[in-house]
Amino acid sequence: MHKIICFDMSGVLVKSTNFWMELHKRFNTYEKGKVLTDKYLHTDYDRLVEEVVVKLWKGLDATPYFELVNSIEYTGDLEKLFSYVKSKGYLTAIISGSSLDIARILQKDFGVDYLFANHLVIKDKKVAGTFIWPIGAGFTKKAHVLKHLSESLSIPLEEFIYVGDDETDIDAMKIAGKSIAINPRSDNLRKMSTHVIETDDVSDIIRFLE
C-alpha cells in the first residue's frame, strides 16, 4: 500500500516549466542568464548561483519576483486531486527545483505536508544575494529527498509515489514504488515510469491512485 505521494511542481502542479528563466526575463537578465544556465546548470550549480544570484540579481528590487510568484496558474483541478489524496490518507510532498515561495502557496491552498524547493532570499524588498538550494537542478538531489523522507518517516521507498514530467525526476522515479509521468518531456522518463498520462488536468492521475 502506498503512503506518500511526492510531486515535482513546475509542469506538474503549476503551468510554468522553468520559473528561474522566466524570472530572468522579469529582471532583464535573460540573455546572460541563458548562457550561464547552459554552461553551469548541470556541471557546477554553486558557480551558477554565484554568477546569477550574487553577480546579476543581488540588490535588485524584488517586486518582479513576487509578481511572478503570484501569477502562477495551476495545471487543472488541484482541489479535487488533493482532496482525494487526503481522503485516502496519503502524506504529500513537493520536491522541486522551482521557488519555495510557490510551494508555500500550494501548501497554504491544499495542505501539502512537506516542501523541498529552492529559495531565493529576499530582504528589505530586494534580492539579498543568497540562494538556498536543497534541490538544485534536481536529479540525484530529488532522489536524496525521497531517501530522507523514507528514513525520517519510516516509510519504505516501495510505498512512495512520485509524479514528474522531465529528466530531472528520473532518479527519484527509479526508487519510488510507483512513478507517474505526466505529459513527459523526456523519452527516458516515459520509458521508465510505471504509468504515463497525457492530460491538461493533473487530477486525471487519480485513476492511477485508486
Polypeptide structure, described:
The protein is of the alpha/beta class. The protein has one domain (4-18, 70-208): HAD superfamily/HAD-like (Rossmann fold, 3-Layer(aba) Sandwich), CATH 3.40.50.1000. It is built from nine helices and seven strands; from the N terminus they run βαααααβαββαβαβαβ. Strands 4-3-2-1-5-6-7 form a seven-stranded mixed β-sheet. The longest helix has 14 residues, at 140-153. It is globular and about 50 Å long. The chain starts with a strand and ends in a 13-residue tail after the last strand.
Task: Considering the chains and any ligands shown, give keywords for the structure.
single chain, 210 residues, alpha/beta, Rossmann fold, seven-stranded mixed beta sheet, 9 helices, globular
Task: Draw up the topology in text.
Elements: E1 4-7, H1 19-26, H2 30-40, H3 45-57, H4 63-69, H5 78-87, E2 91-99, H6 100-110, E3 114-123, E4 126-132, H7 140-153, E5 160-164, H8 170-175, E6 178-182, H9 187-192, E7 195-197
